Amino acid sequence: MGAEDTHSGEPAVIEPVGMHGNYGPFLRSFFARYFDPIDPGQETIDQLRELSRRGVLVWVSRSPSLLHFLFVNHLCNKHGLPLAEFVEGLNTTAVQPMDTLLQRLHRFGQVTGNDIEEEPAGLARRQLEAVLQRGRPALLYIDRPVTFTRPNGTNQDRLIDVLVRLQPRLDRPLFLLPHLIVWNVHPERQDRALTDQLFGVDQAPGFTRSLYLLLRNYRHALLKLAPPLDLQQWLAARRGQPEERLVEELEREVRGQLFSEFYDVTGPRIRPPEQFKRDILADEKIQQIIEELSQGDAERREALRKQAYDMVDEIAAEPRIRWPITLDRILQLFWKRMYEGVVLQEADFERIRQAVRRGPVVFCPSHKSHVDYLIISQMCIRQAVPLPHIAAGINLSFWPMGPIFRHSGAFFMRRSFKGDRLYPVVFRTYLRHVMAEGFPIEFFIEGTRSRTGKLLNPKFGILSWLVEAFQEGSAPDVQFFPISVDYEKIIESRSYVNELSGGEKRKEDVAALVKSSEHLRSKYGKIYIQVAEQISLRQFLRERNLDPASMTREQRRAAIQELGYSILYRINGVHTVTPSAILAFCLLTHRKRGMAESELLERARWTSDWIHQQGHRRFSATLQEFPRAIAEAATRFARDGLISVKHTGEDAVYAAVEQRRLELDYYRNNIIHHFVPAAIFVLALESFAAEAVPPQTLNQRIRELSRLFKYEFLFRSERDFEAVVRGANDSLAAQQALHEENGFVVRNEAGADRRSVFRAVLEHFVECYWLVARELERLRGGLLHQRELVAQILRQGQKLYVRGDIQLQETLNKEVIKNALLSFTDRGILHGEPATDRKGPRYRLDEQWNDEEKLAELVATLETFLKPGQHS
Questions:
Q1: 147 forms bridges with which residues in the sheet?
Q2: Could you read off the pLDDT of 813-825 as tens digits, one per residue?
Q3: Which of 75, 97, 173, 323 could join 232 via S-S bond, C-beta 3.0 to 4.6 A?
Q4: Residue 428: phi, psi to the nearest 5?
């Protein structure tokens, strides 16, 4: 283009300064070191190439920055993408080749003085239009750096209207590419520091801050590219709308995409803590309960407001991103000595990122260890997923960890709300406001750490309040992500065994943490994080024909209960089968003193195959080298004294150490749910003296056992019962453990060994329930607190174990005893009066069961599920 466009008669346009490919060796080496690590991935590059073939690329980002321009320039050069010939709001003269600058000086002499003096905005519009008409890319910015002189960072000379006006005159579509570089996971804050005002904020920085961010974060920065916007199709879908409205809508959509890309890494903007607390205290529900409790007394009202503020202050998280980042770096030093790595699927965290864009996300992890919430937050930082607000027990608010957890996103809740009408309203209101702000939330649906290795039955408190917040319109939807966190070895195993054997739970404090440093001398294998398919609350209710606005109390209660169990079923469906769990299962279901190595490996392969046949697909990758994986698990257990390994010449013999069986039981329970349906089937079948049993009679016995163990295992609903029974029958028949003949279920003599394995899965549970039934005699004299009753049962159980009347050490398990008491209460044998203190509920016998003969009958019934002659 010369001084005049001879085709159009339009005055000459001063050529814009755009991207080029003639950088010198210094800048090329700079780009290679600092820009190459910011890799968008081959799939994105292929997509950009295809779009450039079909249309014209218009890169759109948040605010102009020389380093951002250089990065996009380098990206295009590196991957052969067309270079942008127009760049909005940025003087790139300093990085242009000398010959380009000389050409521009020459052209200035061919342009009239009036054109040189033209308003910059008008000139930019003409330049952009000319570039796009030639089919060449452009780079636009919708804002300006946020600094002291430009506190809002707004762009008054927006050029997006040029795109709307020009597209109808072009044959090819303009593809808008909203994108930005996310330098770190730091959320935006409403309260800005002096450095933010001087140098700009992280996502709208001035040159000094952008250079600082690049040098500091280039290894971890991300290029976030929103879905490309085909402007031709976009305008066609809005045909007939005024141009001004189209420009506003397009800018709003592009801006929204940019903020979505930013927020799905960092989470929402963080408001000052005091402002957030004031908003919670001003909530209508808190004001209502204060008015109700004060009964018009002004002094009482003021006292209640002060009390409510103290409660919010006790509960509220105060996230400061540098705290969890620093904690992450410290923990890495510990984990490197303790663990062999964390195994996860990056695609799982990408699903979470996508869900964050659509509304509130709730993480629902299994809870086996204190490491759970630490490792999940660390993985969120590594995978660029917004950090969640984590529900934590008030027992974790001790100094100095309390402030660290609070600034890392933890909010604290009391263990009990009883006797306080104000606290539950304050807590529910806080939870609703956190959801409305858009922060991810994490809570452990089991309520506490599982001391047994099995998933616990769900606790519905927080879940019900989240559903309530959804019903009240705090969010258009809520996405629940079940997460399984699995360990080859947990750090709390000794303390769990102490508690299960009757010892008191130790209160968390600094001394406990210091003592835990002993774990640094141990090796704990790998940690596995698996994310199940999420549950959309809106879809969940729609599938059950439930309207959130009009659900009855009973419908809501049933929906929450089903939702809670659905989350746990999905956790069980994605847990990782580890070599430790397989080894513990094999040794504890073997009824001889030890197992030869060859026999152990054969049993371990059978165990793995059975789990696979039940449809489970998540196995530790180490099991691909099966003998080695089992050997490494055995080495860890032997080093910790859980098993013994004796070499007899030809073959090593492995055995569970008798006094450590309860600790091994934890790892067996990680996979026990894969065997429970078949184990109940076998237990029911072998409780009959006859070799052949009618299916109807057998099913009745299976139902009795399922009901007996309803607090031990997660059973599917009643409507799935027949399918579960049929599945167990078919699986056992495939193992040659039984067959059907003339309408009867018949035990195969050749399958006795296989049936003995399934019997061993549940034997210690039956023994424990038998022990509890025997000791119910203690309640004939009156009421007993749970704590006292459990202690007495454990003491008596220890005597029976020493005497040989109880065969298995893992039978003496406090949690199983508690579940047995719940089961007997559910059957109407016991009545439990609600707990008023930490001693738990007070139990008494039902009047009909306060009878020696009836209790003896219960004991005899349970004996039918044990081996003949095992009990007197």
A1: 150
A2: 999 999 999 999 9
A3: 173
A4: -60, -40
